[in-house]
Amino acid sequence: MQEQHAARVELFVSNTQIIKKSFKWQNVMMHRLAALLYAAENKQADGEAIRQSHELIKQNTNLFSAFRGNSAISIATLLSLTTDQEKKLEDTLLIYDLMKKIKFRTSDFLVIAAYQIAAHETTEQFEHKVERAKAFYDHMKAQHRFLTGQDDYIFAAMLALSDLDVESGVTRMEQLYAELKPEFSPGNSVQALTQVLVLGDDNSEAGAHVIALNEAFRRRGIRLDKMYTLPALGILSLLPADRDTLVEQVEETYEWLRTQKGFGAWSINKQELLLLSSSLVAVQYVEDLRNGVLTTTVSTSITNIIIAQQAAMAAAATSAAVVASTSSN
């Protein structure tokens, strides 16, 4: 691995241990996400800062608030990386209420979607962006009634923050869906993939690029064309990097992480580890993205897409645990 990338991957591993010690009873997937968010900023995880932000959330929400669910540590981590935690949380709570008023449903996904808008928009734009998020969501729901659900809230917020026109953006997503559905499944993951791709430049070859990259991964025995990793494949396909280089970097990162404490086969499944490996590779290119190689929207969306997929995996794991518990009683 390149020296800078290797240092960040090592930082990520050490950060997971710091977070684990600070939040022993929290979902382990959220430990890894918090560690990744700090590593993405090239910072050592600050357990005390996250704990203080977590306390701030508890002070400003009631016992049954969605802000105290699986998303709590994610939001606390994001807040801890800002310099105006109280204002950012206040704005997030305001946006959350605005989104509920226009019929978004209470969920961990809505909490994160609200934070995205709070973090990337000015106060006077909050209501407008919330309305755009609902317009994108409603248009997607009209196209795919059974595929579009709460896990699309985060993507709806990202689309709202972009400069995309709602109707033309959704039309482009539908074009990509028709092109990619024969290649990938399940349908809701393909929809998430199209949401990622439409955030990139309006490139007629976007679908072909992601298909070619997927084939390159499959030739190395790596499957990113699964439910939770497909959007990450979309991110990688948008990066200004050679296809074979990307595959090699993801593979090297995955193989190295597998040797580390807490990342063995008994600790983390293959799909989550591939998502984390892909995310760490993608983070390498963020500076180039911010310098205009691709749109700013894509660079700021990388973290949000990672959070979206981690949140979806955590929700699925929680549901599975509840089903297993119910079945055993």
What does this structure look like?
With about 325 residues, the chain is an all-alpha fold. The chain contains 16 helices and no strands. α3 (about 45-60) crosses α4 (about 70-80), α12 runs parallel beside α14 (about 270-285) and α14 (about 270-285) packs antiparallel against α16 (about 295-329). The longest helix has about 35 residues, at about 295-329. It is globular. The chain starts with a helix and ends with a helix.
Indicate the topology.
Layout: H1 3-22, H2 28-40, H3 47-59, H4 72-80, H5 85-101, H6 108-120, H7 126-143, H8 153-161, H9 166-180, H10 187-198, H11 206-219, H12 230-238, H13 243-258, H14 270-284, H15 286-290, H16 296-328
Characterize this entry briefly.
By secondary structure, the chain is mostly helical. It contains 16 helices and no strands.
How far is it from the N-terminal to the C-terminal residue, by CA?
Answer: 48 Å
Helix content: over 70%
User: Main β-sheet: number of strands, strand sense, barrel status?
Assistant: none
Count every helix, treating DSSP H or I runs of 4 or more residues as helices: 16
The average pLDDT value, as a whole number, equals: 88
Radius of gyration: 19 Å
Number of strands: 0
The ordered H/E elements are HHHHHHHHHHHHHHHH
Which descriptor suits the 3D outline? globular
Structural class, from secondary structure content?
mainly alpha
Which ranges are low-confidence, i.e. pLDDT below 50, for 5 or more consecutive residues?
319-329
Beta-strand percentage range: under 5%
Pfam families: DUF4003
InterPro entries: DUF4003
